[in-house]
Backbone:
C-alpha cells in the first residue's frame, strides 16, 4: 500500500516534562505532517516539506485538527464496564456490592466476549488506543479481552485476576490454580501480536502469602511479563493489610517479600504510601499509576503527582474503569489537574498530556511502540477537534498558544473532541 501523509496541527511528547524544560519535552508543528506506511510512522515534520519529499503519498488533510499519539490507559478493569458510575460508599463496599457480582457474570464466555468488545469500542471512541486491564479470575475473561484487542490490532496488557481469600467462592482460585492458569495464559498470549501479559494479584487482602509467593515465582520464570496490582488506595485497606500480614513491616513488603516488585510492576493508586515505601519503589524501578476519577469517586484521597514525579517516581495515568467514573482520558487529565490543585500543585497541560501518552507507555514498557509519534512507532494516533463545542470554541478563540488551546479541551472536552482514531494506521472511525 502507498504511504499516507496526514496533515494538521501536530503535537508529540519527546521526554518527561517533569525532568526537562517544556520546550525540550514536546514537538509542535502548527502545520505538520505525519507519514504512515505499513502501520508504522515513517516521518514527521513540516507538512510542505514532507509533501515535497513524498509526492506519491496519499494526503489526508485534517485541517486545524490536532494530531497526537493515541491515549494510553495504564489501569483498567474491563469487566466493570457495565457497572461504571454505580453509587457506592467506600472501596470494600463497592467491591462487594457491584464488582464481585459482575465479575461472576463474566464466567459466561459469551457475556465476557460481549463486555470485552463493548469496552474496546468505548475506549477507541474516547481516543484510547492502548490499555492495561485486569480481567476476572476466570481464564475465559482473559481470552475474551485478548481476542477483542487482537481483532482491532490494539496493544494491550492484561492478566487473570488472582484471589484465594476474602472474595466470593465463585471468584476464588488457589495458589496452585493461580500459578497454573496464569502460566498457561501467559504462554499463550504474551508476545502474541501486540499483546503482553501481566501477572495480576488483585491486592494483598485477597491473596494469601502462598498465592503471592506462587505468582512471584511465575514472574521470576517469565521476567519479560509485567505485574499489576493495587496498593494503599484507602486507609481502611492499609489497616486491613496490617491485620492480615502482621509479620510484614508495611503494605509494600507484602509484595516485595514475594518477588513482585521490580521495573515491570504497576502499582495502582498508591495514595497513602509511607516515605520508606516511596523510596523502595523508586529504587526498584516500579511504577505508580494515578487513577484520579476513581480516587475522588470512591473518596480515596489525593495523589501528589508533582511531588512524586519530582522525587523521581515513574507515573502513569488511568481511568480505572469502572471505579473511575469515565472512559475518557481527557476527563482523567482534567481530574488529575483538579486533584493536583487540591494537593498544592497546578499541573501544566504538557505534564497532563505526557502522563496520558508517553508517560503511561513508559510504565508499560512500550514507549518504543506507543505513546508518541516517533518514527518507527506504531501508527496509533488520533485527531482532536480543539473547538468541539461552543463553550470550548469560544475559549479557544482567546488562546495564545497550543497549550492554552489544548487545556480548554482537556478541561471541557469529551468524546465529541475525538474526530478520528487510527490504530496501526487504520482508521477506526471510518
Residues:
Amino acid at each position: 500500500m502507498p504511504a499516507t501523509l496526514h496533515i494538521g496541527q501536530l503535537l508529540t511528547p519527546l521526554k518527561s516534562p517533569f525532568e526537562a524544560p517544556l520546550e525540550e519535552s514536546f514537538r509542535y508543528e502548527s502545520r505538520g505532517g505525519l507519514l504512515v506506511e505499513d502501520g508504522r510512522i515513517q516521518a514527521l515534520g513540516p507538512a510542505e516539506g514532507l509533501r515535497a519529499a513524498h509526492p506519491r503519498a496519499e494526503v489526508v488533510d485534517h485541517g486545524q485538527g490536532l494530531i497526537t499519539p493515541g491515549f494510553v490507559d495504564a489501569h483498567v478493569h474491563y469487566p466493570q464496564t457495565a457497572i461504571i458510575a454505580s453509587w457506592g460508599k467506600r472501596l470494600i463496599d463497592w467491591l462487594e456490592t457491584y464488582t464481585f457480582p459482575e465479575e461472576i457474570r463474566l464466567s459466561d464466555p459469551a457475556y465476557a466476549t460481549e463486555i470485552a468488545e463493548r469496552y474496546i469500542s468505548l475506549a477507541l471512541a474516547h481516543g484510547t488506543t492502548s490499555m492495561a486491564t485486569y480481567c476476572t479470575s476466570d481464564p475465559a475473561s482473559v481470552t475474551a479481552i485478548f481476542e477483542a484487542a487482537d481483532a482491532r490490532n490494539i496493544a494491550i496488557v492484561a492478566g487473570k485476576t488472582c484471589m484465594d481469600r476474602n472474595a466470593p467462592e465463585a471468584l476464588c482460585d488457589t495458589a496452585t490454580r493461580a500459578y497454573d492458569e496464569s502460566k498457561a495464559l501467559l504462554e499463550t498470549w504474551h508476545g502474541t501480536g501486540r499483546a503482553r501479559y501481566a501477572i495480576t494479584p488483585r491486592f494483598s487482602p485477597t491473596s494469601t502469602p502462598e498465592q503471592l509467593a506462587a505468582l512471584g515465582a511465575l514472574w521470576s520464570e517469565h521476567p519479560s511479563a509485567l505485574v499489576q496490582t493495587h496498593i494503599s488506595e484507602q486507609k481502611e485497606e492499609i489497616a486491613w493489610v496490617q491485620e492480615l500480614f502482621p509479620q510484614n513491616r508495611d503494605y509494600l513488603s507484602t509484595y516485595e517479600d514475594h518477588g513482585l516488585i521490580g521495573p515491570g510492576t504497576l502499582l495502582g493508586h498508591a495514595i497513602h504510601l509511607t516515605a520508606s515505601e516511596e523510596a523502595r519503589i523508586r529504587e526498584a524501578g516500579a511504577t505508580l499509576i494515578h487513577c484520579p476519577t476513581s480516587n475522588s469517586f470512591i473518596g480515596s484521597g489525593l495523589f501528589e503527582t508533582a511531588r512524586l514525579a519530582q522525587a523521581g517516581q515513574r507515573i502513569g495515568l488511568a481511568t480505572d474503569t469502572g471505579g473511575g467514573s469515565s472512559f475518557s482520558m481527557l476527563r482523567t487529565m482534567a481530574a488529575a489537574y483538579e486533584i493536583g490543585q487540591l494537593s498544592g500543585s497546578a499541573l501544566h497541560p504538557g505534564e497532563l498530556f505526557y502522563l496520558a501518552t508517553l508517560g503511561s507507555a513508559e510504565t508499560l514498557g512500550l514507549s518504543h511502540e506507543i505513546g508518541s509519534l516517533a518514527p518507527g512507532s506504531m501508527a496509533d494516533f488520533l485527531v482532536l477537534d480543539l473547538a468541539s463545542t461552543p463553550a470550548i470554541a469560544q475559549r479557544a478563540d482567546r488562546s495564545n498558544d497550543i497549550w492554552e488551546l489544548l487545556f480548554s479541551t482537556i478541561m471541557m472536552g469529551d468524546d465529541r473532541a475525538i474526530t478520528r482514531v487510527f490504530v496501526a494506521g487504520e482508521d477506526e472511525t471510518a
